[in-house]
């Protein structure tokens, strides 16, 4: 995209198509990751599972980075400034998010995570953008945020089996909420990080920083793990998680964010529950409570209204009276 001295130019249509394709592949990988990760935490402590997944993912990304640098004629010098910036974002999106992600999976069914994390993240992302005035507030967006939060509350009530916070499922769902907040911050911070930085390097640096923190956190649980009791299938699942939903997905997510805004990118997270719920139901036999079904519908409706401002995307593009948010250009 060529810089202009005037108003920001919209990316070319093929560029946007590629960006949305990368983000959609990311959402497919993210959705199936809930099922695979749930299976893994059933065989080892959640801290250890997170460390192996992202430790392996970091190694894959370093190999990819080395290969792409060798194949490229331009070999940018290592920059500590870029590494620190990417590392700080990685500590939020890799370390922070996955601490809550795997902890929640150890307590609650994966189907709960597939709803709360990808659907609530756009709501929280939009809320932060409105509070910081990076996007404009409107009655539709405020109503959507309120509806989304109400849906989340109904969903949590459906997870309560009468034991309150002592109940494993409700506690796990609250942990998933913390993970959603981390992902919202990560999406916004990643957009700022991408200015002039190669997406593979940004992903590799951020994942390495988060993986190191996850490994340090997992040292005590690794010491108590009976390695011989871990099935071969669990190691194969971890390998698949390290390559697909970790290395490939994070590279694609960064690449997509380079062309679209964080609210647009996180809106595509509405497709994650489709893949996540389907795989969790078919592979793990999980299900929702009736009240959680209601909460899901309310949460999804509120999220869509909050992110789209109550308008379908093509209508917003045609309207000359509706300003396009800066981060969606």
Automatic annotation (TrEMBL):
Keywords: Membrane, Transmembrane, Transmembrane helix
Leader sequence segment: none
Positions of transmembrane segments: 21-41, 47-67, 88-108, 114-132, 139-158, 170-190, 202-223, 235-253, 265-285, 291-308
Subcellular localization, as worded in the UniProt entry: Membrane
Keyword field contains Transmembrane: yes
Top-rank lineage group of the source organism: Bacteria
Boundaries of every EamA domain copy: 22-156, 171-307
Membrane topology type: Multi-pass membrane protein
Database matches in PANTHER family: EAMA DOMAIN-CONTAINING PROTEIN, INNER MEMBRANE TRANSPORTER
Family, similarity comment: Belongs to the EamA transporter family.
Protein name (record): DMT family transporter
Originating organism: Streptomyces thermoviolaceus subsp. thermoviolaceus
């Amino acid at each position: 995209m060529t810089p202009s001295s005037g108003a920001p130019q919209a990316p070319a249509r093929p560029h946007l198509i590629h960006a949305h394709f990368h983000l959609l592949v990311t959402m497919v990988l993210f959705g199936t990751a809930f099922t695979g990760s749930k299976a893994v935490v059933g065989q080892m402590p959640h801290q250890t599972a997170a460390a192996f997944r992202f430790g392996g993912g970091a190694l894959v990304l370093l190999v990819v980075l080395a290969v792409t640098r060798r194949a490229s004629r331009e070999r940018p010098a290592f920059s500590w400034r870029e590494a620190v910036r990417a590392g700080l974002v990685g500590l939020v999106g890799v370390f922070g998010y996955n601490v809550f992600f795997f902890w929640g999976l150890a307590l609650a069914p994966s189907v709960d995570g597939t709803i709360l994390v990808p659907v609530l993240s756009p709501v929280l992302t939009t809320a932060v953008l409105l509070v910081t005035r990076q996007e404009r507030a409107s009655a539709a967006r405020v109503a959507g945020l309120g509806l989304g939060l109400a849906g989340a509350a109904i969903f949590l009530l459906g997870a309560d089996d009468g034991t309150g916070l002592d109940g494993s499922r409700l506690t796990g769902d609250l942990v998933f909420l913390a993970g959603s907040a981390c992902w919202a911050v990560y999406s916004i911070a990643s957009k700022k990080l991408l200015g002039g930085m190669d997406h593979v390097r940004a992903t590799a640096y951020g994942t390495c920083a988060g993986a190191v923190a996850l490994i340090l956190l997992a040292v005590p649980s690794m010491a108590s793990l009976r390695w011989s009791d871990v099935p071969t299938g669990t190691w194969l699942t971890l390998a698949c998680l390290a390559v697909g939903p970790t290395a490939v997905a994070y590279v694609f997510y960064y690449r997509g964010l380079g062309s679209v805004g964080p609210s647009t990118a996180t809106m595509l997270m509405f497709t994650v529950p489709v893949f996540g719920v389907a795989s969790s139901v078919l592979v793990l036999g999980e299900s929702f409570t009736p009240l959680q079904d209601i909460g899901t519908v309310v949460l999804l409706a509120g999220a869509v209204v909050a992110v789209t401002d109550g308008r379908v995307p093509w209508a917003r593009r045609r309207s000359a009276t509706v300003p396009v948010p800066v981060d969606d250009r």
